[in-house]
Amino acid sequence: MDQRRGTLLDVTDLRVIFHTYRGTIKALNGVQLWLNHGERLGIVGESGCGKSVTSLALMQLIEQPGEMIGGRIFFDGHILNELDESQLDGIRGKDMATIFQEPVAALNPVMRVGYQIAENIIQKSGNAGSRKINEDVGKMLSTVGLDPNRTMRLYPHQLSGGMAQRVMIAMALSARPKLLIADEPTSALDVTIQAQILELLDDLVREFDYSTILITHDMGVAASFCDKVAVMYAGNTVEYATTTEIFHNPLHPYARGLFRAVPRMGNSDELETIPGVVPDLVNPPPGCRFHPRCRHAMPECKASFPPFLEIEPGHFVACYCFVNKG
Fold first, then answer.
1. Which domains, from first to last, does the chain contain?
2. What is the DSSP secondary structure assignment for residue 59, as one 8-state letter?
3. Hey, is 276 helix, strand or coil?
């Protein structure tokens, strides 16, 4: 049965491994995500939970020693993991674009900024006159708050961190993609520049009505930016709901632990912590990967991973506490 949960994106049971000298890292262990046109989805979780690997898998950029070993990625009428490289080249950067976590590393160090943005515009529009392309590059740089005449002549090493991230945003949006993936776009910036970049991104997404996936470890950013939130733990999606629902009524023990650990204005009490440590994904625990840290763990949690069930309308959770309930 082919029942899609999202009109634009539907990721089912996504599994990715990496072959290393230590053994096989089971990085993604059945990720579930979906997104409708015009929605904003936040992916949250601790460092190492698989957020960035998920974004690379969506773009079909997993390379050796990595390997996608299972699952299906439906995007805008295509099953991406069934396409060849030439077909993917017609989608990446054009219909699906990424703002990477390290902007300077993502830019080509030997090409001027203007040329790199122009490449994206040409891919989307086909051949066009150099004057028209130049105008479009200038408009995109102006849109993200940069001086086009100066910036398009610069090389990446001449950009500050904030400028480089604005250039990455301009590049990602230059082709007017159907889906924008922002992978922790402010993690390498100072607090003041972070706020400016997030405000800029929010304004642009609102103006052009982009479907967006925001990967972040900042709960406050997810709460203010996203319509829906997916919580990941050790390569699994453990909870998925609207932002309002998941912040006011988190169901999975891990999600509850995350929200209890968020500082709150006026609260001087010691923050709660989640006991234990994130598992080694070379030898992850059997069953639910969170069970060694979970105060509600039951025998079945150690035997198999719980099904991903809709507990309330639009609210999904993978936890045996909710199996056969209601």
1. 9-95+177-322 (3.40.50.300)
2. T
3. coil
